């Protein structure tokens, strides 16, 4: 009876969330988000995050559609900035009056170099790629791909030569730890090693400071944040869905996932302006570990 009751509650919640998403992105309510963005003097900043850009791999954004997204952002006068620029300018009032956007990629797949990088160069855009350093220049692939067909061909990770080339162009690199573990499950020594070692490894290879972190799986805690600060990070990206206002904490930056469920530029546009923020935030709060209680 308890199980059936829980299933019934889950069904009701899912129906509510589906209705909320449809309502918040409908042709009737979507203009409200547009008006809000235009009417208020301070703008919220979208940090978009991707994993893959490839015509082959499962769960990848097609390169042609990725280029359409970048072209649309350019046409709408969005300014592509790095996390370094975000943190150096976020205390200035003018920053919150501009159309700024950040692009981020998690893990460091080789297709980021093969398919996303040429588009970014063509449009003179930058991004931040978060590297899980154990897998860089390594025949090993991320563990969740091991049993997928053609894994070795389609799930290769970046090499240090590719990373250095992109870095010289202006692509920013951050830490996604060494082994991509659940940071909240590690003891203090293991946690510190995952955070400082990945930071040091990237800096050694590209010759630039590495000041920003992305939490694997989006899971973190107050202890994780405290240790990240201790080893020298200045900010971190979470997987909490939504736009970033001036008051969003530096170690809990929100992001908007851009994956295969986005089929049209109009859907992409709705994500960029924040039309999905409320229903997805509710879902994360109720059913995931991506919004922890920091006590």
Short descriptors:
295 residues; alpha/beta; 11 helices; eight-stranded parallel sheet; TIM Barrel; single chain; disordered N terminus
List the SSEs and their pairings:
Blueprint: H1 2-24, H2 30-39, E1 47-50, H3 63-75, E2 79-80, H4 83-89, E3 100-107, H5 111-122, E4 128-131, H6 151-154, H7 160-169, E5 172-175, H8 188-206, E6 212-214, H9 222-230, E7 235-241, E8 253-257, H10 265-273, H11 277-287
Parallel strand pairs: 1-3, 1-8, 2-3, 3-4, 4-5, 6-7, 7-8
Describe the structure in brief.
With 295 residues, the chain is α/β, with parallel strands linked by helices. It has helices at residues 2-24, 30-39, 63-75, 83-89, 111-122, 151-154, 160-169, 188-206, 222-230, 265-273, 277-287; strands at 47-50, 79-80, 100-107, 128-131, 172-175, 212-214, 235-241, 253-257.
Can you describe this structure?
- The chain is α/β, with parallel strands linked by helices and 295 residues long.
- The chain has a single domain (2-287), classed as Glycoside hydrolase/deacetylase (TIM Barrel).
- It has eleven helices and eight strands.
- It has helices at 2-24, 30-39, 63-75, 83-89, 111-122, 151-154, 160-169, 188-206, 222-230, 265-273, 277-287; strands at residues 47-50, 79-80, 100-107, 128-131, 172-175, 212-214, 235-241, 253-257.
- Strands 1, 2, 3, 4, 5, 6, 7 and 8 form an eight-stranded parallel beta sheet that branches.
- Helix 1 packs antiparallel against helix 11 (277-287) and helix 3 (63-75) packs parallel to helix 5 (111-122).
- The longest helix has 23 residues, at 2-24.
- The radius of gyration is 19 Å and the shape is globular.
- The two termini are 34 Å apart.
């Amino acid at each position: 009876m308890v199980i059936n009751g829980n299933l019934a509650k889950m069904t009701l919640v899912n129906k509510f969330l589906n209705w909320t998403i449809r309502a918040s992105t409908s042709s009737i309510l979507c203009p409200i988000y547009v008006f809000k963005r235009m009417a208020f003097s301070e703008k919220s900043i979208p940090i978009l995050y991707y994993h893959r850009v490839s015509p082959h791999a499962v769960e990848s954004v097609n390169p042609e559609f990725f280029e359409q997204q970048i072209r649309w952002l350019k046409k709408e006068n969005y300014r592509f900035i790095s996390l370094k620029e975000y943190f150096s300018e976020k205390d200035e009032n003018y920053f919150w009056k501009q159309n700024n956007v950040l692009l981020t990629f998690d893990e460091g797949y080789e297709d980021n170099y093969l398919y996303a990088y040429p588009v970014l160069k063509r449009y003179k855009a930058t991004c931040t790629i978060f590297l899980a350093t154990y897998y860089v220049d390594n025949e090993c692939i991320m563990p969740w791909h091991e049993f997928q067909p053609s894994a070795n061909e389609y799930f290769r990770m970046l090499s240090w030569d590719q990373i250095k080339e992109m870095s010289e162009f202006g692509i920013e690199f951050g830490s996604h730890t060494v082994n991509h573990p659940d940071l909240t499950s590690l003891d203090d020594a293991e946690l510190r090693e995952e955070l400082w070692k990945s930071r040091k490894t990237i800096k050694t290879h590209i010759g630039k400071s590495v000041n920003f972190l992305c939490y694997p799986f989006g899971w973190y805690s107050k202890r994780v944040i405290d240790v990240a600060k201790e080893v020298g990070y200045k900010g971190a990206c979470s997987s909490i869905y939504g736009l970033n206002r001036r008051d969003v904490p530096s170690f809990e930056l929100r992001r908007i996932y851009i994956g295969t469920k986005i089929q049209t530029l109009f859907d992409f546009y709705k994500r960029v302006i924040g039309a999905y923020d409320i229903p997805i935030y509710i879902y994360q709060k109720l059913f995931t570990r991506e919004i922890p209680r920091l006590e």
